[in-house]
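A favour, since you know our structure tokens better than I do. Just paste the record in under my message, thanks.
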Amino acid sequence: MSEAKTPPAGMRAVTKKSALPIYAIGAVWLLWALLFPLYSLMHFALCGLVSLAAYLILSKVIPDSVVYEKIPVQVTGYDSADALLKAGDAHLESIAALSAKIENAEVRTTVDKLGGTCQRIFDYVRQNPKSADDLRKFMNYYLPTLEKLVKTYELMEEQGVEGENITASKERITQMLDTMDVAFEKQLDALFGDTALDIDTDITVMEGMMAQEGLTDAGKMPTAEPIQPLQEESFQAGDIKLQL
């Protein structure tokens, strides 16, 4: 089996099995027909066993191949959500291409993680199209800024020198990427605020109904703590500030 890797942003991994084991079955039957008799049930049974053995052995020896293909565009029927997903996929493709060129493994890992968080945000929008209206600042500023920072870092790294200005700028970009990593995860968490409140309401109603039906000991039944909505927080690195 091929080693599992995280697919690039906007892509999905597809495992494909080799066709060689199947071809081997045909080859066994062809060679058997040329070299050995095939006019009795025993001959057919032996040939079948040999071809099955060849298939099983090659299936174990030849690893599956993993290819990446673009995630199909899903039309939500909600104009702002469809526009957001189209623009977001374009940004993520660009960021993934830039990340692949970055030599600093730590920075590359952070950028890939940010891309994964963005993809999960877009996955949520695909399932909840109306949430697109809450992501205008994310789409109009944060995501384009992430792309610009990654592009600038890759350009500076490409110069192959460690001058004072380049080194200082790369350090600030690295700090900002770490800050954005936290901010983007909180943005994803904020999208689940309504879901969390709905679950809290369902639990409260269920507790009341069970108590009324005498299905629980109301005096001993623990009460679920209400889920608090995410409060606005700001993240700052150097002179760059993000606020959710």
Observations:
- The longest helix spans residues 164-191.
- The two ends are 42 Å apart (CA to CA).
